[in-house]
Amino acid sequence: MRCASGIEARQVDELAINIDLIQVGGRLTGDAMKAVIAYGDGYSVCDNCRKPNRLDYISKPPIAEFHKDVAAWLNMDAVRTVPGARRGFQAVAHTYVQKGDPVLLTSLSHYTEFLAVEGAGGISCEIPANNQHMVTSDAAAFKIEEVKKQFGRAPVLAFIGHVDYQYGNMHDVKSIAKVCHQYDIPVLYNGAYTVGILPVNGKDLGVDFVVGSGHKSMAAPAPSGILATTTERAAEVFRTTAIIGDVTQRKFGIKEPEMMGCTLMGVTLIGMMASFPQVKERVKHFNCELENNRIVVDGFLVVEGTKIQSEMPRKHTLTRADTIGSFDKVAESHKKWGYFFSGALEEKGVTSVIPGATKVWKFNTYGMTKKQAVYLAETFTEIARKNGLAVKE
Amino acid sequence: MTFQALFTLTDLRVILRETAPQHELDDKQREQAQLLLENLERQVSSLKQELLK
Asked: Does residue A34 sit at the B interface (CB-CB below 8 Å)?
C-alpha cells in the first residue's frame, strides 16, 4: 500500500517487534499520531501567534505552557524546542566556543557533538573511556589538566553524555560536572537517550544545559528536541537579537539568534506536546523497561558463546551484543552467510538488526510489552537451536 | 466526524503495535478493539449521511 507515488506506507511497528536502537523511544504515542493528523500543515501551530510573535509565547495551542512544563519537569529554568538534539549542541557551542578553543568531549560522544564544536571553530579534547567503556570523573580531571598544559587554559565547554550510543552505558554525569565546575567549565548534558526515557533532574545533576531528543526519546516526530538551561545561562544562549537593518532600520523584536527565531512550527512540536503527558508518566516506570530488557538479555545469554559488551546489570535498554562466539560461527558455514540471522529474526517478526550483522551489534528493548520481551527472548533461543547452537537450560 | 474516524483508526493502530508480531489480543484488548470498530462503523455511517445527503 502506498501513501503517495513511490512512497510505501510504513508499517514496521505494526507488523514486527522493532529493536532499532535509535527508533524505539521516538515512536509516537497514539495521541501524537492524532495530533500529527490534525496539524500536518506547514505553520499549523501559528494560527494564534500574537505579539510578541515568538513560538514559545503562543498560548493556543498551549505552547507557552508546554515550555514551562518541560523546564519544571527537567528541574531547569528555561527551555526552547529545537530541531533535534544536534541543534541544541550547535546553539550552545556557537555561544561559548571561539576559534581555537579547547572543548571537552568523550571518546563515546556522538558525531554531532564533534560537528557542533567544529562548526564553532573549537578543538575536540576527548575524555577517554576506561576499559569498561565508562567515562569517569577522574578521567575528566586528568584530561582537563592535560588540556590546561597544552592550551594554557581550561576547556571552554564540556559535552557529557549520560547514556552513550555505543554501549548504552550510564556515566556519572553528576561527578563529572562537579569536576568541570571546579574549572568553571559549563557542562552540557547530552540526554538524547535519557530525556523522555528515564527521570532527569538537571539541577541535581549540576549541569548548565540539558539537551534532549524528541525523535529519539520523547515519542515525537523528527526533527525535534529540547534545550534546557539555567536562568544565568539562558541570558547567554537565549539572548535576543540586537541587529538593525542599515537601510530599513528594522529590528526583530525578541527573536533569538541561536534559535534562528522560531524553531518547531508545526507537526514536530505538536507531536512532542501531544506525547508529553505520556512521556512524563513513562519515565516513572523505567524499571519496567529494565525488567523487560533483563528478560531479553537473559534469553539471549543462554545461547552459548553470546556476550553482552554493555555494563551489567543493565541500567539502560540500549544494549551491545557480541555474538562472535555463537551466531557468527553459524554464519561462517551458512548458505546465507551472515544474512541468515537478520533473515531468521524477520521471519519471526523481529526487525531492525542490520542485515548481515552477526559479530557485534546493538538492540534496544525500550517500549515493548512484557509479552513481546518474552517472545523476543524465545526467538533468540529458537534461532540458536535451529542452527545447532548449544542453549543452556 | 472525519477526525473522529481517523482517531479511532489510530487507536486500532496502537493496538496493532502493542501486539506485534502475532496480534494475539488478550480479553481486554479484544474488548477495546470491538468497541473501537463499532464506533468506527457509526462514525463512517454518519460521514456517509452528512456528505452524501
From this structure: yes
